[in-house]
Amino acid sequence: MTLPMSPAIRRRTLLKSGLAVTVLGAPPIISARGETPVRIGMVDPLTGILSALAASEVEGARYAVERINKKNGILGRQVELLVEDSANDVGTGVQKTRKLIERDKVDVIFGDVNSGIAYAMSQVTSELKVFHMVPGGHTDPITGTDCKWNVFRICNTTSMDAAAVTGELVRRFGKKFFFITPDYAYGHTLQDNFIKNLKALGGEYQAELLPINTAEFSATLIKAKAYKPNVLLNNMGGLAQINCMKQFTQFGMQKEMALGGALFELETVKAVPADAQTGSWAMEWWWNQPNVPEVAAFVADFRKATGKTPTARHWFGLVAVESVRLGAEKAKSLEGPKLSLAMEGMELPPDVALQAGKAYYRAGDHELMCDIFVGDMHPPTSSPDDVFTVTSVVPGEKAAGPVSDTGCKMVHPA
User: Fold this and answer.
1) 10 Å Cβ neighbour count for 369?
2) Domain-embedded: residue 406
3) Do 112 and 15 share a structural domain?
4) pLDDT tens-place string over residues 8-47
5) Domain total in the chain
6) Cα gap 242→236, rounded to integer Å
7) Is 380 found in the same domain as 231?
8) Are residue 379 and residue 244 in the same domain, yes or no?
9) In 10 A of CB 372, how many CB atoms?
10) How far apart are CA 336 and CA 43, in angstroms?
11) What strands, in cross-sheet order, belong to the sheet with 151-153?
């Protein structure tokens, strides 16, 4: 079912934002022009260990919907966002995807933060010929060996993130790594790509694969301590990563080794002790880009609208909605095959890309090529959200390598 809302809250939300809201079982809300709104279905793990990341993606999408609706919507129609909770479960995510498409008649689908769920969803959306945007599920096959004509992705592949940060970790801290990695699609491809890059630089490693919802890391941290690595790579996500970081500092291990890895997202950084706010990481988008006026304007407006500093996950949600608008305007349609073809090679304008470099969807694999921000994590300085200093910006194309290396063989429907 959709996110629970009381009738009073639903009414206030509608009046405040102008967003269309659909009650299950009720007929579609019709805009003032007599047209059915454009319906976007979003599936994300709103409960479970990845809920904070999912909540930010949804909030970013809602912000974008409100922004677009103030400017005549998509193809002159208001936009409605229908959100479903995958509960971090593959079967539930697939069920909610089918429900949104077959019952709620959404035009496009977004999701999921969990890479395994995103991949399973893509089987459904491809079968039903519905355009599918993956804002924040990273595992490589989604735009690699199992790429699909209707699926586009905003976040990086794990190979891109690993390529962007491995060299920096080796240069600054050394070649001996210990991986703590979630035992599912995202973790497997991320660790494999780190190992490939590390071996190319003459490094060595030990690794521990753990369930995605692990809460107790003592045994694994004892193994890491005994191995005496230069860097501990915490590849866990969401609440699991927070718990691992807290126990890392309780063991005093921050005095013995560096921290690092692919992603240490703002939602997570703010939830760990200051001693664990350290290491070298990649940010897939960062709010503090001093020489990009569009970023400053967006950050100010987002703070005014939500009271929050935008994160990469907020940006994913924003870009997903705006990309549908841009693609639909180019295709003059929301039909999956037409929208997909229109978006191949499409470049995002500055007020959507929100970065100095070029951001565009690569035609060969439908992966967004955009800047990757590599830098140092640290306790807050000038503000509670000033916890990351960018040391280098890696172009997405450089980190991604050629399409031929991804294994994607894009085939469009006849």
Assistant:
1) 20
2) no
3) yes
4) 333 333 333 334 333 333 334 434 444 799 999 999 999 9
5) 2
6) 8
7) yes
8) yes
9) 26
10) 18
11) 79-85, 38-44, 108-110, 131-134, 151-153
